[in-house]
Protein 1
Amino acid sequence: MHEDLLAVAVDAARIGGEILTRLYGSTDLGAEEKAKNDLVSRADRESETAIVAHILGAFPDHSILAEEGGHQPGAREGFEWIIDPLDGTANFLRGVPMFCVSIACVEHGRPIAAAVLDPLRDDLFTATRGGGAWRGSTPLRLRDRPGLDGAFLATGFPFRAHGAIDTYLTLFREIFLEARGIRRCGAAALDLAYTAAGVFDGFFEFRLAPWDVAAGSLLVEEAGGVITDLDGGDRFIAGGNILAGLPGVHRRLREIATRHVSEALLDRMVPAQGG
């Protein structure tokens, strides 16, 4: 199911990954700020150009939503590719080896095929809706835990949502006091892939972009995890507010979040980009 889409996603991720591997460590990347603390470089642009060209070569009538190039409408309604050509740009530019390529094909807003590639380690995560999630050739199936006791979590600091930092820190504090540990790796798509693989038991963050979330969300779901917005709904791709993890871990994250924040409250504090 959706294997033709997945094959193109994987090939495109590897094409982008080869560019990132070649440019990693370069001192001539022309980095600049798109917005405060939101960086773009030649690596992002070259990777995206090559990825988009490969996808449109296979599906010329599909739409594209990519981090650097924005939205490119296609002739075929309902199919869109959501692309992050370099998730973890700040890490990449500083020589921190935690970054990835993230690609999802979405049908009417719902991811149906996904690939996340850590090119330095050749670590590939894939999923199709109804077809399961995989790390390389190994199928991913999560084992549940009842709550946050002993849980190992990932998060990301909400650099796009400074107006909600106090709320985030209140949430972080309560989760931190229950969990075994929390890590901030700096690449949300990779955090979600690791959650699907059972490296992390859960993940939470505010105001991510669609390209940070689309592929990783399918990985989590197909591995047997749960991913929702702050209200337990399905607005997480559009709104970028994420609670994800093992079912029991997600349940506890949601209980804690309910005491401190909601989608409506966050919309008042920091409106979602584009709406």
Protein 2
Amino acid sequence: DVAIVVVGTNDDWETEGNDRESMDLPGDQAELIRRVAAAQDNTAVVINAGSVIDVGWADDVPAILDVWFGGQGMAEGLADVVFGAADPGGRLPTTFPRRLEDTPAFTSYPGENGAVRYGEGLFVGYRWYDSRAIDPAFCFGHGLSYADFSYGDPTVPETAVAGAPIRMQIPITNVGDRDGVEVVQVYAHAEAPRLARPDQELKGFAKVAIGAGETVVVDIDLDERAFAYFDPGLVEGHRAALLSNQLGDWRTDEPGWTVDPGVYELRIGSSSRDIRAVAVLNLT
């Protein structure tokens, strides 16, 4: 009735002592997936690996479960999810790119002359893919449940003072026919940042179990650091001109954490690319 294909890596292929040279599954595992899927429409692929892999076969199968390296209890947890005793409540903590060439560090790693330059700077992970509008195979924060969820209108203050805590309330309804787990995520987008910033950044999330047909109001608090960034300060020789002509008297040239006043979009969704609601906040 169903084929379950378990693929992945082990410590022969990835360890903390060295980096992998490609995202390919070792051996002929990708071909195994394709051949099984060609013979059985109901094929589920279980990825047992510690990092991202090439999932060019994803469109050939109706279900994929990434279990990472789950340790000694992994098999029992996997069985519970596959047989429906537990909801797959996890979400991707990293982006699955379509190509190695799409990754932030592709042009700077492994470096040269014995040095590696982290050329992506702030634009690591999903911040890179979002800011450059690169379509990944699976985005940061992605994950499905056996239930379906509907997002209501969020309650967010229109104006807040920088440094003051902000509470967001989002009603979530389980519109499916069984209990499930949803991970509500809040991303902040600055309309006019003073320095180069990622298009959006995760600032809060909440994992909630919701019964079939039930509605819960999810509280997510954004603290004083949610809108702060580290300003490295002005380059020597440019301080006087910049301070007098552009920055105004509210800024100094000293490095440190700071918050830009202005308009922010608070994007609420079930992943970095599945935004269900947007609230506008004016930070003073």
